[in-house]
Amino acid sequence: MKKIELILFFIGIFSEISSSQNVRPLPKPLINIHCGQKSFVRHVNLVPNTRPNQNIPATCTYRIHAISGFICQMRLDFQEFSLLPPEPTPFPRCISESMTVGNVTLCGVNNGQHIYVPINPLRGERFLDVTINTQQQLNNFNPRSTWKISVHQFECPLGQARKGNAAVQAPQRQAKLGLFSDWVAPLGCLQYFNQPNGTVESFNLNNGVGPYIGDMNYAICFRRLRENTSIRFIPMIFRLGYAFTTANNTGYDDACYSVTPTIGRAEDFIFIPNAIADGSTTLPAVRASRFCGESVLSQTITSSPPGGPFMIYFNSDQLYEVPDKEEIGFRFQYEIA
Ligand SMILES: *[C@@H]1O[C@H](CO)[C@@H](O)[C@H](O)[C@H]1NC(C)=O
Ligand SMILES: *[C@@H]1O[C@H](CO)[C@@H](O)[C@H](O)[C@H]1NC(C)=O
Ligand SMILES: *[C@@H]1O[C@H](CO)[C@@H](O)[C@H](O)[C@H]1NC(C)=O
Ligand SMILES: *[C@@H]1O[C@H](CO)[C@@H](O)[C@H](O)[C@H]1NC(C)=O
């Protein structure tokens, strides 16, 4: 085959795979590594220790090497993730215990959550360090703090390939990419949901106890297939701090984020572009994009962006005013339509 034919052939494979609603599940990693160890495989579990009574250092670092120059993302799945919660003063931050990877720091309870971290080995970023700081030593094996994090590495599709002719140079690699292409997140997404329906929630929601971590601003993305036009959210839990209330607005748009920057005014919200909240017995339907307070409890939100991936943003500020303006978080069921 000529180069161009080979490229078209692989493009054909991609479009076939990514137009299907069925997502191939990720394999369960067969290898566990513990604090201080390095990984050189595509799928690996990070665990505190691999032997009973093994000492856990206060700072536990795992070094995950990209398995090839073509890797562009790593996905961390928190099978178990239970660290101390964020300290509330002056706003919820991960101080006593934390997990840091790239510029993301998390703590509290995050079982079942995941994050994506970008990497570019061809620009010299050959590994990612995952660092977990705990008080294990102080507490003498405090059984409360535990984790099991699965890390998966993905190559990016042709359009995002680090080298223009990657497909031609490494056909077998591209075949592998086809296997996991449904798991590659759009650029810049901290979280990516590739199923047609499911649940999305804030970090350290902790079954409705919270609080969410302050000073975060990140994108949550959902897989959009060719015929999909909208995404629907059904809030199960929704309490995002303070809403500046006016007669007709209890937590939409300017109530969540003032047009003029105002020191000391809360700015915790979720941004859902081009959205309609369908109203409730006490509230009229509204068209809005920012939601805060308890505004969308017992409503359904439908977002119909004209194109591009389905994407919402979470924003938390550097204020904390409990108990009257609770910062608990959100849990949405979502459905792609
Ligand atoms: C991480 O850094 C990038 C730029 O390097 C920035 O855009 C992003 O907001 C940061 N993420 C967080 C969670 O701070
Ligand atoms: C998605 O929808 C299907 C069919 O309605 C349902 O059986 C399944 O439980 C849903 N999955 C999630 C994660 O909500
Ligand atoms: C609130 O809504 C009512 C009726 O929809 C309207 O008459 C009134 O002007 C609104 N008030 C404000 C402050 O926007
Ligand atoms: C989303 O798009 C895919 C393929 O384009 C289609 O098979 C699926 O039915 C769509 N989902 C809905 C709920 O319309």
TrEMBL record:
A Pfam family matched in the record: CUB_animal
> Which InterPro entries does the entry link to?
CUB_metazoa (IPR058698)
Protein name according to UniProt: CUB domain-containing protein
Q: Which residues form the CUB domain?
A: 186-336
Q: Where does the signal sequence lie?
A: 1-20
Which keywords fit this entry according to its UniProt record?
A: Signal
Species annotation: Polypedilum vanderplanki
Q: Which PANTHER family match?
A: CUB DOMAIN-CONTAINING PROTEIN-RELATED (PTHR33236:SF12), INTRAFLAGELLAR TRANSPORT PROTEIN 122 FAMILY PROTEIN-RELATED (PTHR33236)
Record carries keyword Signal: yes
